[in-house]
Each structure stands twice: as structure tokens, then as C-alpha cells.
Amino acid sequence: MNPARGSGAVADLFTGILAEEPAAEAIVDGGHRLTFERWWRSAGSAARALRELGVGRGDVVCLLLPSSAEFACCYLGALRLGAVVSGINPRLGPTEIGHILATAAPKVVVTAGPGLPPGAGGAAVRTAGEILTGPADDGFVAVRADDPAVIVWTSGTTGRPKGAWFDHEALQLIARNIGPLSARHDRKLSPVPFAHAGYMTRIYDQLLYRSALVLTPPVWRAEDMLETLAAERVTLGQGVPTQWEKLISLDALAGTDLSALRLVATGASRVPPSLVRAMRERLGCPVVVRYASTELPLAFGTDPGDPVEAVATTVGRPLGDVEVEIRDEAGAPLGPGRAGRIHLRSRAAMRGYWAGPRGAAGPRPADRWITAGDVGSLDADGRLTILGRADDAYIRGGYNVHPAEVETALLRHPAVARVSVVGTPAPVIGEIGVAFVVPAAGRAPAAEELRDWCRGLIADYKVPDLVVFADDLPVNTVHKIDRTELRRRAAAEAAARPRVSRTPSAPGH
């Protein structure tokens, strides 16, 4: 049952685990529990089935599967052959799946059920049940550090999804620089789809720290998350701010034992200071924020001992070997306090974008800097503040407005629980800002009250023209704020209330 020694870092890590604690839990998927030994054995069955389908070193295996123990076994089985693993979220539409399969050019596609996925081409298509049934291989193909290991697909918000590929060295660097997010024998709540970077790039992290991944039910509910945290004695809780806000509002939390929880990590959207304080108090552990992207899954993070204000308004300092530059539109570096496009560089970053049948020949800037999709600024202590997506900014009367600045101001008001700001077209002025506000429990602020509040904190042209109150904010499949839906609502609100609050000033006045 032991992997061959010296055949690669994954095999070497498994050798130690199987020799010392093979019965330790690796995956908890509802009632399905995998020990490390069983994971290795099931992955051996996957490796044999894939090998018999012609998969070898450097071939792509696409996993069109939900987050599950089966996904983890097929993932490891493909790696044992020296193959490149590409996860595909089954919630994507047929056009997106077809594009990904055409670009990945896989040898095999593994699916959850029968049927040919769109764009499979000449790839062999098998179900996870077929791949995981049968005798097991016991070996492991030797790989080099610069061999491609995984492909992670971007969300496609600015076009078709692109496949960011990582070699084994990048995955090892992520594991070594993960910081407080990993500790020996952690039990980690895993709420993200396995096809995303949060799982696809963390195999070495899990093996190095011998941690167990605890999956949440496919349809997220705060009650289920709370029950899982307690029943599975989770030590690291992970989720976006909206999930944590709903969880800590549950009456059942007061009588739930979460004493095993050592740390909570969040990100993906702004975290109000009031929420950070409430999470620390009600969950009884430190809270950290992480900032990353598909192309660089390890970028910035706050520390467990950071003050509330730092956790609420910044994403912390660079992790590992990450370098950062804030640049203006001409590409010139900007100093502390100046807002510009974020550029990142790290050996843990993607090596390029997958280029179809040509494989790993995708383009990559010669200096290896990655241009993030976000605008931000650095303070004198090296902490990064995210001002928003570059394409979320709107132009009001000739002035650029970053929604995050407006959101930060509104979140300081005690009557505001959550907020999201978007721009929408308007006559004469170009665009106006519309703030969607979820009031704090028991509070009913007036729109003009919140606009007056903003005038004391930010420039007048950044004050939202319209304030719309809502019981909740729309979220997408990964519980991030759905700005596309909010823009649709903002356009309707602006049409119903066509007058804006003031005429624009000329830029510079």
C-alpha cells in the first residue's frame, strides 16, 4: 500500500502519513469519510482506470464533478500518473463547459453521471463510479518541479474562462507559505467548490499538515454550517462575510460548542468593523482576511493579532515571496497612499494560461508580473487596501469613483449592516452611484441621513446619489455579491427616480 519512495513530493508526503498515521481522516463528505490510507487506495483505482484509458505524464484529465470525496480521489489518481488535473464546476453552462474542454484538450473527462458533456471532442468520458471501481495501481510516476500539475479556470467575468496552470513547485510554495491558515492535524471547513483555486492548488498543503477537509452540504445554509462546525470539531472556519454574518445571527449559536475553532478566515468582499468584532466575540477566536486570485492563490493576509480596523479595512501584508506594486494607468509605480492598479509577482503564481493542444505554451509576461483586476493602495506599513474591481469603478461628472471607498464610509454608520455600491448611466452627468443598504437589526436609517454621513467622510462627488434599502443583497453561486444583478436594479431605480442630487463639477474644481 506504500507509494514508491523518491517518486515525487506528493508520494513522499504520503509515504510518511501511511507509515505513521494511515487511519487519520483526510476527507469528510457528509456520511462519507476517507482516511489517508483509503484515499490513497481509491486514488490507485482511479490511476489504473485512467492509465488504461491512455493517460500518461503531461496529459490533461478534466473533472466535471461537484465537490466530493470522489473528486479528491480522481484528482489524486491523475496526479499519480503525472497528469495535469483540470477541475470544472458542474454549475457552469454548456457554452462555458464546451469552451473549457476545447481549450484544455483533455485525454479523459470524468463526470458525475452518464451523458456526453458539450465539447468533449475525442476525449474518453467516464463517470466517477467507473473510474473508482476496480483494482488499484500502487505506483506513482516521477515528476519534476516544473511539470504542470493543475489548471484552474478564471470566472470569465471579462470574457471566456482562461486556464491558469500551476506546476508542482508553485503548489509546494503555496503550502510552505500558507501561514496561520494551516496547522498540524487541522480540521478545515471547505465551503468553496473543488474546481476553484482554494482546493485545486492546496494538495501539498493538506499533505504537509496532514489536515482533514470537512465539506459543507451542496446547498449552503447557515444552520448546516453551524452544525458542521460543531459536530466535526472544525479548527479552521472559512467563508465569505455574508455567510459569517448569517451564522453569527443564529440564536442556536449561543448554545453551540465551537471550542475547537482556533481561527476564522474570510475575504472576497469588504468586512465591516462591526462584523469583525461580532465574529471575534461570538465565535471566540481570531479573524483573518485573505486576498488572492485564480492566478495567484497566495497573495495577502492579515494576522490573527491585527487590530479590528486593519482586518476590516485592509487585506494585510504580502505572504511568502509575494511582491506588489501599485501602478498608474501609464504603468508607473505609485507611492504609499496612492490608488492604482495592483501588480503582483511570486513564484507561487500561475506559470501561464493553458493554450489548448499546445498545453503549457500559453503566454506569460517576461518579467512575471501579474496585473490584478483590482485597484488598491498601500499604506506606510505595507498593508493593502482594495478599492474595488477596476471595471466596477464608475465616472460621475468626470470623476472616477471606486465603490469600495463609498462602501467603507457607509459601513462606519452604526445603522448599516451591509452595503454594495454600483454605478448606473444617467443623463448629463454620465453615471451616478446607487447604494444598496441592508440596515442593522432594529435600525431604520433615512436615505438622506446616510448621504449626510458620507459627506463628512468622502468627497462630495463620491456621495451616493440614490440609497436603496433592502432586506438582503443578491449573491452568486459562491456567495459573493452579485453586482450584475445590482446594476440591473440600479438602472430600474434610476429610471423611476430620474433626478440626481446635484449637477457635476468640472474635474479639478
Summarize the entry for a quick read.
This protein is an alpha/beta fold. It has helices at residues 9-20, 36-52, 69-80, 94-104, 128-131, 168-176, 197-200, 203-209, 222-231, 241-248, 273-283, 308-313, 403-411, 447-455, 483-496, and strands at 25-29, 32-35, 60-64, 84-87, 108-111, 124-127, 148-153, 163-167, 187-190, 212-215, 236-238, 263-267, 287-291, 300-301, 317-318, 323-327, 340-345, 352-353, 370-378, 384-389, 394-396, 399-401, 416-426, 430-439, 466-469.
Summarize the helices and strands and which ones pair or pack.
Blueprint: H1 9-20, E1 25-29, E2 32-35, H2 36-52, E3 60-64, H3 69-80, E4 84-87, H4 94-104, E5 108-111, E6 124-127, H5 128-131, E7 148-153, E8 163-167, H6 168-176, E9 187-190, H7 197-200, H8 203-209, E10 212-215, H9 222-231, E11 236-238, H10 241-248, E12 263-267, H11 273-283, E13 287-291, E14 300-301, H12 308-313, E15 317-318, E16 323-327, E17 340-345, E18 352-353, E19 370-378, E20 384-389, E21 394-396, E22 399-401, H13 403-411, E23 416-426, E24 430-439, H14 447-455, E25 466-469, H15 483-496
Parallel strand pairs: 1-10, 3-4, 3-5, 4-7, 5-6, 9-10, 11-12, 12-13, 24-25
Antiparallel strand pairs: 1-2, 7-8, 8-18, 13-14, 14-15, 16-17, 17-19, 19-20, 21-22, 23-24
Helix pairs in contact: 1-8, 2-3, 6-8, 9-10, 10-11
Protein name: Long-chain fatty acid--CoA ligase
Domain AMP-dependent synthetase/ligase: 19-354
Family: Belongs to the ATP-dependent AMP-binding enzyme family.
